[in-house]
Amino acid sequence: MTTAAFVPEIELQSTKEIRKFQDGKLRELLLFLKEKSPFYSALFSKHRIDIGNIRGIDDLVNIPVTSKTDLQQHNEQFRCVPPQQIIDYITTSGTLGDPVTFSMTGKDLDRLAYNEAISFTCAGGNSADIYQLMTTLDRRFMAGLAYFLGIRMIGAGVVRVGNGIPELQWDTIRRIQPNAFVTVPSFLLKLIEFAEHHKINYKSSSLLKAICIGEPLRNPDFSLNTLGRKISEKWPLKLYSTYASTEMGTSFTECSEGIGGHHHPELIIVELLDDNFNPVKEGEYGEVTVSTLGVEGMPLLRFRTGDVSAYYTEPCPCGRNTMRLGPIVGRKNQMIKYKGTTLYPSALYDILDNIGFIQNYIVEVYTNEIGTDEVLIHAGTKVSTPKQENDIKEHFRAKLRVAPLIRFRPPEEISLIQLPESGRKTLKFIDNRAS
């Protein structure tokens, strides 16, 4: 297949045609859920919802939202097929609570491959690429499997290296000469550090671009954040930011313009909702809420992801007319009210990433003795002094007007907490607030 085969025609249509297309797909989803989903058929009955009256996306406000708690408490009720049709079992990472099991049919795996194929194509991918896949395919993890299937579908090469182990990563680069990474962006800094220590000329390597997962690279205005700038200043790779989750089974990936992750209208319906579950206006922040299309095993309707973002609809210079999601500014459940200031962890990360003597860190939030949010930064440093503590607090005051508590710890100790042996993602935020 050619690269052009992975740019869906619907993404090039007018916004009016895209909306009409999605309205039709929504009606198909509602019929499927009423017939096949124990959870949603019961929800429709309980709330006396006549799905015949739901003619399009504008009518979705008449249907209750679905939460992560619903998935945890009624997991089996979301399954729409008998067990013998399940091919693969996956669990979420548990960022917002206990992990949730997802069951996928063969059709769902084909959909997953298609999603990643069009996403890699959106990020300039083609069959001539060789991707160094730096995320695990095991541990019940969807992402690594999805990337592998998508790369295979576009006919590109893939090297399954997995995460960590800089020495193995550089040995792979030397032996196979890949031109693209699929990686958590902060790990690129570790690769650079390893290369500089071992006198590897990384700037003249075969690598040209990185598909970045799991961490934000951009500020709300689409400029590179501190992490993105640090990588680019050291290594002039083309960086593509992505956003996805197990529940969605769909990715929002930047094109070369770098102005938001493109929506794939044949795979997912997206709403951004306020605290009352009403749609927000373009450019305003809301909770990303999704309805999955074409999913057979466990489709979702108006599922609240917990992620906060904004959307944009002006046509993209790349030719796609799909809605674009801006950078995720934080998790709704992770919003911090600190000394009268509303914060998301990403704002704290951006400051900490810009302080040279901090090697790694964890942000802990807990309820203090007067019942309000307290922020404690566990900063990984080789040495610590009162001046360093004051410097950190001054950085925070300059950017956020408030300064958190600081606790210095050995970087090795922080690393063990950030990525425990059973972990799949780097842990940077611990929420110990009273419920």
Structure in words:
It is globular and about 65 Å long. The protein has about 425 residues and is α/β, with parallel strands linked by helices. The chain folds into two domains: about 1-330, ANL, N-terminal domain (Rossmann fold, 3-Layer(aba) Sandwich), CATH 3.40.50.12780; about 335-430, GMP Synthetase, Chain A, domain 3. The strands form six sheets. Strands 4-3-5-6-7-8 form a six-stranded mixed beta sheet, with helices on both faces. It has a four-stranded antiparallel beta sheet with strand order 10-11-12-15, covered by helices on one side. About 30% of the residues lie in helices and about 25% in strands. β18 and β19 (about 375-380) form a beta hairpin.
Question: Can you describe this structure in just a few lines?
Answer:
The chain is of the alpha/beta class and 435 residues long. 30% of the residues lie in helices and 23% in strands.
Give the helix/strand class.
alpha/beta
Quickly count the domains: 2
Numbering strands along the chain, what is their spatial order in the largest sheet? 4-3-5-6-7-8
* Spans where pLDDT lies below 50 across 5 or more residues: none
What's the β-strand tally?
21
How far apart are the termini?
A: 52 Å
Percent helix: 25-40%
What is the radius of gyration computed over CA atoms, rounded to a whole number of angstroms? Answer: 22 Å
| Main pleated sheet | 6 strands, mixed
CATH architecture of the largest domain: 3-Layer(aba) Sandwich
CATH topology of the largest domain: Rossmann fold
Q: What is the overall pLDDT average?
A: 90
- The CATH superfamily name of the largest domain is ANL, N-terminal domain
Q: How many H/I helices?
A: 11
User: What is the top-level CATH class of the largest domain?
Assistant: Alpha Beta
Task: Tell the overall outline.
Answer: globular
Q: How much beta, percentage-wise?
A: 15-25%
